[in-house]
Amino acid sequence: MESSSSDVITASEIENCSHLQVPVYSSEELFEKLQEKWNSGKKKPYPAMYSSVFGGITLDPALMVIPIDDHMVHRGHGVFDTAIIFDGWGVVDVKLDQGYLYELDVHLDRFLRSASKAKIFSPFPRSTLRSILVQLTAVSQCKKGTLRYWLSSGPGNFLLSPAGCPISAFYAIVIDDDFSQCKEGVKVITSTIPMKSPLFATMKNVNYLPNVLSVMEAEEKGASASIWVDEEGYIAEGPNVNVAFITQDKELVLPSFDKILSGCTAKRLLELAPKLVEQGLLKIVKTTNVTVEEAKNAAEMMYVGSTLPLLPIIMWDGQPIGDGRVGELTLALSDLLWVDMKAGPETQRLSVPYV
Ligand SMILES: Cc1ncc(COP(=O)(O)O)c(C=O)c1O
């Protein structure tokens, strides 16, 4: 739309705005200002970032930026994923100067599936993306935290179509995070924010506004987070977690993944939980459609997601789940995942030699 002449701010008007003197910085001044923000003496939360825009790694948080004309920024044309950085090998004879990325390959596979659904073509083959992530983690020296990475249609202009973006972009950042096993139960609500349609819910794209609003709604109502129910009345997922139930018959039940994000932690839980079936603690492990009524009658309920790895849910829409206390089977499943994270099978360990 054309702006009318009355919308145009003239140079003399700008000069007259003495009350609002917006500084115009030189590159040196701006760099100094950005660094001031991070040099407060506190430990820096982001030890390292990679950007394909400059083709390398920076350890300076003041330079951990992405271009404003990147289509991921102004159009949401980007996908992302994560992995957990852990040094807790859980055994005494392994050098402590090594860490690993838990389930990196599973996350990378989902990342590339998301990119393909979003029609974003990676600037690098999978092996290069993986190598960049391993090198970034090594350089960061981070022993416990998360790795987050994005594929974007890239910088170029402010249009919708990525046709004017010469090359897609890959960004990754290491975040120090001292997470620990969650053993306290939380309260949840049913979200009134409409959930994403299956196409958008099954790809991990950067459009998380419904998820943000859903968490904010929960917080406003004194809960920790929320649960989405789909239009057919089946349980879907939480805003950044999957959800699982233990029925009164000791069945571990997870909602099917066809309309929601296929959680890497939930998938790993489904692989590990049969151990509890072998021990006679659980009867069966399955994914299926779960109605709200079945879910609310569960004996135990939990969120399932990367850093938790399980978070017990004890109250839903003001009603207790089971006896309203953290369930024993929830804790047993949480232990299975936590031990797996700390000392996972050889195939899951991605050794990161710190430099
Ligand atoms: C919407 C949504 N569902 C589920 C999950 C859980 O996935 P994961 O176990 O891979 O962290 C996430 C987190 O990434 C998510 O954002």
UniProtKB/TrEMBL annotation:
What family is this? Belongs to the class-IV pyridoxal-phosphate-dependent aminotransferase family.
| Protein name, per record | Uncharacterized protein
Q: Which cofactor does it need?
A: pyridoxal 5'-phosphate
Taxonomically, which superkingdom?
Eukaryota
The UniProt keyword set, sorted, is: Pyridoxal phosphate
Kindly indicate whether the keyword Heme belongs to this entry: no
List the Gene Ontology MF annotations in alphabetical order: catalytic activity
Q: Which Gene3D superfamilies match?
A: 3.30.470.10, D-amino Acid Aminotransferase, subunit A, domain 2
Which Gene Ontology terms describe the biological processes this protein takes part in? amino acid biosynthetic process; carboxylic acid biosynthetic process
